[in-house]
Design brief:
- With 302 residues, this protein is of the alpha+beta class.
- It has two domains: 115 residues, Rossmann fold (3-Layer(aba) Sandwich); 157 residues, Sandwich (Tumour Suppressor Smad4), CATH 2.60.200.
- It is 27% helix and 38% strand.
- The chain contains ten helices and 15 strands.
- The strands form three sheets. Strands 5, 6, 7, 8, 9, 12, 13, 14 and 15 form a nine-stranded antiparallel sheet that branches. Strands 2-1-3-4 form a four-stranded parallel sheet, sandwiched between helices.
- Helix 1 packs parallel to helix 5.
- The longest helix has 12 residues.
- The protein is elongated.
Length: 302
């Protein structure tokens, strides 16, 4: 329509048990009232959001994706492939929704649509993972990282956050530790770690709350890096897990630091997760912060 801005609504119909159907009519009206002419597109398979976002970026003033953290991550990856990026909005429909929590978004489709159509824009750092891969809120290896993409979807839909906790507890007796060299801004660490995470989020896995203890800014060009050294006994491991669930990062086995670039070197290939999805296995990983790469519609407290 003449004089209206153009918005692409990119929907993952499988996220959140098809929850996009609830409130979508009112969401479309919200976009219309905000001055947008909306085009609707659906994803059919993994990678579709990346492809569509890259192909259509130049044709729209704003892209709003509807789905889980993985859908948002795919959309951001597509936008990072183009030189001029439209503003990005997000209507969360997934299970854990760490990104939604970080961005101050609501689980209500209509309320999130109002934010996605609004004028409050946050410049958002994006993580580059080796060459050609990106993440919006976390790249991680080790304990619990398999949970987010190996827990069956029906359990995620039924149990939500509890599914992650139950599956993580089931894996505790078989945790694998890796001798790791970690190079970060101004320093090097070497130790036996059961977990490592590079984050740009206030919440990870719906369990760890980083902001109050670590001090998180989404656009400062710095990652928050969390490392857990291998405890010597199961009792110590239990204490570490208890501390983390209580957002206590002062354990002698936990290291929290900030860095714009982090390089991990392992003796053998190690499996990683990117924004809750399988990130492949690697002997060496470099995570680089791309500062203020995306202009994101966010809640007032983001």
């Amino acid at each position: 329509m003449k004089g209206m801005k153009k918005l692409l609504l990119l929907v993952n119909p499988n996220a959140g048990k098809g929850g996009y159907k609830n409130g979508m009519g009112e969401a479309l009206l919200t976009f219309h009232k905000a001055g947008y002419c909306t085009t609707l597109a659906f994803t059919d398979a993994h990678g579709d959001a990346t492809r569509i976002a890259a192909e259509e970026a130049a044709n729209y003033d704003r892209i709003v994706c509807v789905g889980g953290d993985g859908t948002l991550s795919e959309t951001v990856t597509g936008l990072m492939a183009v030189p001029v990026r439209p503003e990005l909005g997000y209507i969360p429909m997934g299970t854990t929704n760490d990104s939604a929590s970080t961005l101050g978004l609501s689980r209500s489709t209509v309320r999130s649509a109002r934010i996605a159509a609004g004028s409050a824009i946050l410049p958002l750092d994006v993580g580059r993972f080796n060459t050609g891969h990106y993440f919006t809120y976390v790249a991680a290896f080790g304990a619990f990282t398999e949970v987010s993409y190996e827990t069956p979807q029906d359990q995620k839909n039924t149990l939500g956050r509890l599914a992650y906790i139950l599956d993580a507890l089931r894996r505790l007796p078989n945790l694998t530790h890796r001798w790791t060299t970690v190079e970060y801004d101004g320093g090097v660490l070497e130790d036996d770690y059961i977990f490592g995470a590079v984050t740009n989020a206030r919440s990870v896995g719906g369990i760890l709350r980083l902001d109050s203890k670590v001090g998180v800014s989404l656009s400062d060009g710095l990652f928050e890096v969390l490392l857990i050294r291998t405890p010597e006994t199961p009792l110590q491991l239990g204490a570490v897990v208890t501390d983390l669930l209580a957002n206590n990062f002062s354990s002698e086995y936990v290291t929290a630091l900030k860095s714009s670039r982090v390089k991990f070197t392992f003796r053998d290939p190690v499996a990683w997760t990117l924004d809750g999805e399988d990130g492949g296995s690697h002997r060496q990983v470099v995570c680089e912060n791309v500062p203020r790469a995306i202009r994101m519609a966010a809640g007032g407290d983001a």
